[in-house]
Amino acid sequence: MTDLPLYPLIINGERTEPAAGHYADVINPATGDCIGRAAMGDATDVDRAVAAARGAFEQRQWREMAPAERSKVLYACAHTVMQNAQELIELEIGCSGATLNRAVNLDIPAVADLWMNLAEAVKTYPFVTNQSPRPLPEQWHSQVWKEPVGVCGLITAWNFPLLLFSWKVGPALAAGNTMVLKPSELTPTSSIRLAELLQAVLPPGVLNVVNGDGAAVGDAMTLHPDIDKISFTGSTRVGRIVQTNCASTMKRCTLELGGKGPGVVLPDADLDMVAQGALWAVYMNAGQACESGTRLLVHDSIYEPLLQKLAERSGQVVVGNPADPATGVGPMATETHFKRVMGYIESGIADGARVICGGGPASVPGCEGGFFIQPTVLADVTNEMRVAREEIFGPVLAVIRYSDIDEAIRIANDSDYGLSAGIWTGDLVKAQQVARELRAGSVWVNDWHMMRTDAPFGGYKQSGYGRELGAWSIDSYVETKAVQMSFERNPLRKNGQRIVHTRMGQ
Ligand code: NDP
Question: Cβ contacts of residue 368 below 8 Å, gap of 6+?
Answer without folding.
Answer: none
